[in-house]
């Protein structure tokens, strides 16, 4: 359990190997996803119904639940669960509302005014995972910022669940749909959901941008449609990951619990322990064994732990160096000394500070978003926020004074690029002002 690597003894090639997630090394996922996408493009809703039977084991009469069906399912929710969802909703809403900022207009020269305004992306597709676990929390994490941004149409896809018609989605998903005033849930999962939202089918509208995490099929489909259609994606948000940095002030019980919290997501999840002593690693492994043994999803978590490792570092700073190389989806600084190293963080999706801040607080209810870049994409992508659901459009206005102040500069630059029509566009205005 958790093979240990000694950081100062690793060469560059070994570090590269450690930080590579080795996802779809043989391209088998890509091949399967390409064939699913082409099936959906050719056969639309018929393909969706047949893939639901094949991959989800559910025979559907239609691809979606309507408002009335959602209402009936939502009625089954328990009071305790409803209250917890309401609290999470409020905290996520409060945090995300603070992201709506109006930028100031800038007068770059007298009479030359430039500014940016925000416009919502009109049609967005939200993917809510529902393979090995159904995640109503993801519905909150995507639906709340989309609503705050002002997106007009929210298309929601989630894999159908086995059971009676009243169990095709669970009551928590149905309740969140009501909170977000969403009137249809499309019962479509995996790569086929991404293809349907990118190309459109008779029942599912084509969207401008697709959001949401998912397994390797979902994530691969998102990266394929991003490069082959005009539909954008939020980011590659695949199998969950956590990297925990621990020192002598950390609590091995907490650290083991945090590692397992991500490990239980899927067999391809990774949970990396970076520690400043061999003793901390040994104590954490002992705790991992104890806690794993009683987890309901122990088979999944054990496979993910097999796919994980520990790194022994000389101090917290060296731990941060490795973490920045790994670029984890979640970074937990499980130390009382977290203030010493936060400024050194350059690559991480979301950061959890100190011994009392578990990653599951952010997964569910503290307010931050849990849809985050995996597979080292934290080097270049941010997690989902209100910004992900908007475009920033630039505006400018030139007054007569502005034309006079800027005109000659534009003329000279157009001239030096050999673009006479560009020059003319400002020259005719300058001349009109002289005539006046
Ligand atoms: N990065 C993030 O922000 C984040 C957030 C939440 C969850 N996650 C990750 O999301 C994932 C959820 O995975 P999940 O599987 O539970 O649900 P999922 O909804 O992502 O995938 C289920 C779908 O996968 C498809 N599928 C399953 N087996 C297939 C096969 N052999 N061939 C083709 N398609 C197949 C099916 O269509 C099924 O409906 C986990 O890996 C979890 O770690 C990531
Ligand atoms: N940890 C996941 C992101 O990687 C989000 C999640 C949803 N539910 C529980 N956890
Ligand atoms: Zn989680």
UniProtKB/TrEMBL annotation:
Q: Where, by residue number, does Zn(2+) bind?
A: 262, 265, 363, 422
Q: In the UniProt entry, which residues are flagged as the active site?
A: 329 (proton acceptor), 330 (proton acceptor)
- Pfam families named in the record: Histidinol_dh
Q: What is its EC number?
A: 1.1.1.23
Specify which residues bind substrate according to the UniProt entry for this protein. 240, 262, 265, 330, 363, 417, 422
Instruction: State the reactions this protein catalyses.
Output: L-histidinol + 2 NAD(+) + H2O = L-histidine + 2 NADH + 3 H(+)
**Class of the enzyme per the UniProt entry, highest EC level:** oxidoreductase
Binding note for cofactor: Binds 1 zinc ion per subunit.
GO-annotated molecular function: histidinol dehydrogenase activity
Cofactor dependence is on: Zn(2+)
Domain of life according to the entry: Bacteria
Q: In which pathway does it act?
A: Amino-acid biosynthesis; L-histidine biosynthesis; L-histidine from 5-phospho-alpha-D-ribose 1-diphosphate: step 9/9
Q: Does the keyword Zinc belong to this entry? A: yes
Q: Where does NAD(+) bind?
A: 127, 192, 215
Keyword annotations for this protein, in alphabetical order, are: Amino-acid biosynthesis, Histidine biosynthesis, Metal-binding, NAD, Oxidoreductase, Zinc
Q: Which InterPro entries match?
A: Ald_DH/histidinol_DH, Histidinol_DH_CS, Histidinol_DH_monofunct, Hstdl_DH
As for what it does, the entry says: Catalyzes the sequential NAD-dependent oxidations of L-histidinol to L-histidinaldehyde and then to L-histidine.
Tell me its family: Belongs to the histidinol dehydrogenase family.
HAMAP family with a match to the protein in the record: HisD
UniProt-listed NCBIfam families = hisD
What is the official name of this protein in its record? Histidinol dehydrogenase
Q: Which organism is it from?
A: Paradesertivirga mongoliensis
What gene makes this protein? hisD
